[in-house]
Amino acid sequence: MTEVILSVLACVVLGCLALTAYLSWSxxxxxxxxxxGLLSLVLAYGGWHAVRSAxxxxxxxxxxxxAAGFTAASVTALFLLLYGTGCDCL
Length: 90
What we know:
Distance between the termini: 21 Å
Number of helices: 3
Low-confidence stretches: none
Order of helices and strands: HHH
Shape: flat
Structural class: mainly alpha
Radius of gyration: 16 Å
């Protein structure tokens, strides 16, 4: 039963991502490409801060925020990879 719920949830998330991409592209392809590029830079910055060794002092709030965003995006991508591939809605 849990597998079915997770597969349906993955299909819904995948559908929402596809709808968002379609609506964004139909509104403005330039803004879509710029937004994806900016999101990629933010996630790359967060990934860099997530895997590098912590230095002395505390983490800055921007670094912590982007590292948390990178972690959330990685978990979501892993979830979609594991359960979205078995989705028959595609």
